[in-house]
Specification:
This protein has about 400 residues and is mostly helical. The protein is built from 14 helices and seven strands. Helices cover about 65% and strands about 5% of the residues. Keywords: Membrane, Transmembrane, Transmembrane helix.
Amino acid sequence: MVSSTSARSSEQGPVTPFTTHTLLPNGSSSKSNSSLPDMSQSSFVKAFFTLLILGGYLGMGLILLTIAFSSKVRRHPLFVNFLLCLMIYTTSFCFLLFAGHQFDGEGKPLFLCVIQVSFIYGSQVMAILAGLAMVFNVWLKVRILAQAVENTQVVEENVYNEVFGNELYEKTYQRHAFWTTIALLALPYLVFLFVAMIFILEGQRHPLIFDIASNEVYCKLQKSTQTSVPTISGMLIFIGIGLIVLVGKDLLTYRKRMIWPKPKSHLSKQVRFSLVVRLGLLMMCCLFSFLAAVIASLRSGGKFTPIVQALFPLLTFFIFGSQKDLLDAWGLTSLYYWIKAHAGKPPSQVVMMNLRHEESRSYIATSSTASTEAGYSPPLIRVSSPIRPPEQALVR
């Protein structure tokens, strides 16, 4: 998986424990180098970690906490696993930052650089595999519906709701796909450990193949070092894009041929392409990140690739964090309609409207209590609310 030129291997001489080395740009290894320019304080490095932490920790953490504590937001375990993989992906780039050596002006410890490179390559494959597992699982379920329609079989409503009910959520553990889900959950982590161990062992044998990136953000491999990780990542991304196309095809087949006994409005609410679109956007983000890595391997340095890598978790947050149930749980739907109802009005008028609304509700509650105590029920009075209730929201 990793190979280097024979010239560089012969230059390094006898192998010594790399925990005592300090890695400098261009692959040099020494105790210190006071002439090294301190690029780590630049605004580019700060922007890189800001984008990375916003998406990888704050964004992913917000979705995970919402899933954990909100009874109305439910997701498939593979989706939760994908978010966890993205947090590990973020940690791999922040490894030197958390270790306290990101802003060292005299080079980085070689041991930490080896660990970071191992985690970066391993987590990239892991994140792509976790996203591919989601796509593959959805394709399996949609394929069941498409085959049922082709064979003129009756589709069970619980299977139908598994695929399309509440976006990515389905009760896989209660069905025959239990072991398939377990395998899809474990596979990304096994591959991550396998790739990371290969790079760690390679770092012990050939420590000079590691280098600090020219932008001083993270450690990397030397240009002369060949690795098959980008090739494997590219193959997985194209497989995911192909599965997305198959999911869309099977979904169209199902919607055209299925004679659903319920009203068409119910069908249009349940069978939506939003899930396919979100997964397709995810695969396109993976492809864009892969192309950026390829460009970086063909050209010298540059800031384009690190920014794309930092944007990947943030774009994922926008793709999946814009789902309606999450927006409702965060109160953004109610806030949207409140702003829409009071747009263009002076603050004093908004305050008066809210006061009149509260007085009306209090009057109705008091009148209802007094009427009940008197022994009769007055006719219901409908009071129009300036705020549109969140259950009528059409935000997707």
